């Protein structure tokens, strides 16, 4: 997975480094009860998870998660119609074997590490230069994205969490509704969201951008409040809807107007079969306001 990364020109939220997040004097957060204790060495905090940590974190996640709902409905349907062939559109696991061209290359590369010529020690932290160059030319041929813009990581979900750590707990965020749960969950962990509201089944401080058949699965941006971060997934999980060029142009303009950063998740871009953009970087100006994951 890779994140193409640019100099973000929009008035970005206070992007704190990990050390500055941990050095914050208000690190004790009532929502998750993680307690930062200053130890003798200057600038160091010891994190102590109190018993309340488990309880209150559980309480935070004690909402009817999409995944749980899908599983419950599938079980109920199967109980009623035991012969039904259910195709699950919920969160699941991969189901198809990895193509041989990939696994053989991985096996060869691993084996090369056992040879004097192939051994390389630690790899480059942003990913192997050759791989990054290949990603840049294969996926972003004429879009002005270069090897140095690519970061190869261990997965989009981990990147979401890392970006959230970088953004810190004071940012505001918008998310498609419905969308892949990791955006909201990582936001909850960071303490950005406020408490879960049982009546609305939403978190108080998140800006939910309704995406449904009535609005063509693209939010009415005139009704969306200004936030520092916008998570946007296209094609979206779970709806499968991909945003058109016009819609993404509106989204980029919206982010520029509000000084927001778009975290654009295109995990399913390769499934796009019409002329919808496979990358937000096809939209002029998107590089100034967006980070893309795939
Ligand atoms: C929209 C979306 N983004 C990211 C991910 C996670 O990707 P990764 O396996 O690279 O962590 C998933 C996995 O289901 C997903 O549906």
Q: Would you kindly provide a written description of the structure presented here, covering whatever features stand out?
A:
The chain has 294 residues and is of the alpha/beta class. Among the domains are: 101-152, no CATH class; 154-293, Type I PLP-dependent aspartate aminotransferase-like (Major domain) (Aspartate Aminotransferase, domain 2, 3-Layer(aba) Sandwich), CATH 3.40.640. The protein is built from eight helices and eleven strands. It has helices at residues 18-22, 51-60, 66-80, 100-112, 129-140, 156-167, 182-190, 245-258; strands at 2-4, 34-38, 45-49, 150-152, 173-177, 196-197, 202-203, 206-210, 229-233, 261-265, 290-293. The strands form three sheets. The chain has a seven-stranded mixed β-sheet, with helices on both faces. A hairpin with a 4-residue loop joins β6 and β7. α6 (156-167) runs parallel beside α7. It starts with a strand and ends with a strand. Mean pLDDT is 82; it is low at 5-40 and 42-59. The site of pyridoxal-5'-phosphate has 9 residues, from α6.
Silhouette? globular
Attached small molecules: pyridoxal-5'-phosphate
Give the N-terminus to C-terminus distance in angstroms.
6 Å
- State the order of secondary-structure elements, H for helix, E for strand: EHEEHHHHEHEHEEEEHEE
CATH homologous superfamily heading of the domain at 154-293: Type I PLP-dependent aspartate aminotransferase-like (Major domain)
Q: Name the structural class.
A: alpha/beta
CATH topology of the domain at 154-293: Aspartate Aminotransferase, domain 2
Count the E strands: 11
C-alpha Rg (nearest Å) = 21 Å
Task: List the total number of helices.
Answer: 8
Strands of the widest sheet, in order across it, are 4-1-11-10-9-5-8
Uncertain runs are: 5-40, 42-59
CATH architecture level-2 label of the domain at 154-293 = 3-Layer(aba) Sandwich
- Largest sheet composition: 7 strands, mixed
Approximately what portion of the residues adopt beta-strand conformation? 5-15%
Which whole number gives the mean pLDDT? 82
The CATH C-level class name of the domain at 154-293: Alpha Beta
Percent in helix = 25-40%
């Amino acid at each position: 997975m890779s994140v193409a990364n640019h100099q973000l020109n929009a008035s970005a939220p206070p992007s704190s480094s990990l050390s500055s997040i941990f050095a914050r004097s208000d690190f004790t957060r009532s929502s998750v009860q993680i307690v930062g204790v200053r130890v003798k060495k200057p600038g160091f905090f010891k994190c102590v998870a109190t018993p309340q940590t488990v309880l209150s974190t559980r309480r935070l996640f004690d909402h009817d998660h999409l995944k749980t709902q899908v599983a419950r409905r599938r079980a109920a349907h199967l109980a009623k119609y035991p012969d039904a062939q259910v195709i699950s559109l919920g969160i699941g696991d991969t189901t198809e074997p990895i193509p041989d061209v990939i696994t053989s290359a991985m096996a060869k590369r691993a084996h090369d590490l056992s040879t004097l010529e192939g051994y390389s020690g630690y790899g480059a932290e942003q990913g192997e230069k050759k791989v990054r160059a290949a990603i840049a030319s294969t996926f972003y041929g004429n879009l002005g994205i270069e090897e140095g813009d690519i970061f190869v990581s261990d997965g989009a979900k981990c990147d979401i969490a890392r970006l959230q750590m970088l953004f810190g707990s004071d940012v505001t965020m918008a998310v498609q509704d419905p969308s892949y749960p990791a955006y909201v969950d990582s936001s909850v962990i960071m303490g950005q969201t406020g408490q879960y509201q049982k009546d609305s089944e939403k978190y108080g401080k998140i800006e939910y951008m309704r995406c449904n058949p009535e609005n063509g699965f693209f939010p009415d941006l005139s009704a969306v409040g200004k936030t520092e971060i916008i998570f946007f997934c296209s094609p979206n999980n779970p709806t499968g809807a991909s945003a058109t060029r016009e819609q993404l142009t509106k989204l980029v303009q919206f982010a520029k107007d509000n000084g927001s950063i778009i975290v654009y998740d295109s995990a399913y871009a390769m499934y796009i079969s019409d002329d919808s953009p496979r990358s937000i970087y096809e939209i002029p100006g998107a590089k100034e306001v967006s980070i893309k994951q795939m």
